[in-house]
Amino acid sequence: MTELTDLIALSLSPWYRWRDAAEALRAGRSPAAVLDRFIPDAGERSAIRERAATAERDAEGGGLAAIAWTDPRYPSALGTIIDPPFVLWTRGSLAALDRPAVALVGSRAASAHALAVADRLGADLAARGVTVVSGLARGVDSAAHRGALSAGGITIGVLGSGADVVYPREHAGLAREIERDGAVMSELIPGTPPLPPFFPLRNRIISGLSRAVIVIEAGEKSGSLITARLALEQGRDVLAVPGNVLSGRNRGAHALLRDGAKIVETADDILEELGCAPERATRSQPSCSDPILDCLTPGEPADLDAIADRSGLSAARLLSRLLELELQGVVARAGGGRFVRVDRTC
Q: CA 183 to CA 156: how far, in whole Å?
């Protein structure tokens, strides 16, 4: 059996053992040794390893990538949490895991206002090179994913089922759109159905992948508050969008604001909290010979593919650089994932 097989087997052990198993792995013990310790019965251990090996083979045939905790491709931010997934089962682009990310979460039964806010924040963050992370659920989650896609950006959907079992079913088309440039992922082996205990567990992955968690409309008992609590435990920033005080639908987010979470009205609020938007007075002035600016003509919007062709930069690196230039006021977004140079005297 391989190290990957043993890590998959560990993920099949009871969830309450995962934190202790992670501590043992961090202490330098091999996955095989940790599995022997936590599943001492040889027959049970053999059965769970065989189940893990079968899942590994099924993933290879089903277009899923199994990324072990020890794999260099494993997201570094996620690896720092106290109980990281032993394996990430991923569909789509693994390059999506290398980018700075922000989570947008909120109510499944969201108001029209919350859906509009999620869509706008998803689009604005994605247009600035930030990956949008959410849970592919109804309501705020799906609106955030669609907003990011509308801006030609990258988004990641984290499931509370196997990565090959999209839930809810009506989001199968949305999942396919996400996979084109982003990723759909889960820590659960292929074929795992969406059971209630899995959703609170997946929330730690949503926050663990992200630099900040933004709560958009959440009731007093919303699962989004679990994600916010986990984010704080993981040392992530937590921000919230204020809502209608009369409806009672956003009491959870308002409680976060009373406890000190920053108010979010625009993507700029998020970027400033993350230190990505310097004060106007201290912004450095770009050179007129900047290679990205040389690829843009004032007043003529260009999409990412065109700019990438002209500059020779990858999409990930290009989006990051365009974010810097936009913050400096020399590049503006023109909608539809396009950018335009702002004509000014150098």
A: 5
Prediction pTM value: 0.78
Domains of the chain, with CATH numbers? 3-92 (no CATH), 94-273 (3.40.50.450), 280-341 (1.10.10.10)
Distance of alpha carbon 330 from alpha carbon 298, whole angstroms: 10
CA distance 99 to 318: 12
Distance between CA atoms of residues 303 and 112, nearest Å = 30
Taking a C-beta distance cutoff of 8 angstroms, is the pair 142, 177 a contact?
Answer: no
Question: d(Cα 155, Cα 165) in Å, to the nearest integer?
Answer: 18
What would the mean pLDDT of 239-267 be, rounded to a whole number?
86
In angstroms and rounded to an integer, the radius of gyration of the C-alpha atoms of the chain is: 21
Q: 136 near 165, Cβ under 8 Å? A: no
Chain centroid to Cα 250, Å, comes to: 23
Query: Which residues are bridge partners to 297 per DSSP?
Result: 300
Our separate counts of H helices and E strands in the chain read 14, 12
d(CA 91, CA 201): 19
The DSSP bridge partners found for residue 103 are 133, 213
How, if at all, do strands 237-241 and 262-263 pair? parallel
Sign of CA dihedral 53, 3, 84, 94: negative
pLDDT at residue 285 tops 50:
no
Q: Are 121 and 240 in contact (CB under 8 A)?
A: no
Please report, as a single letter, which amino acid is at residue 177.
E
Q: What is the pLDDT of residues 74-102, one digit of tens each?
A: 988 898 899 999 999 999 999 888 888 99
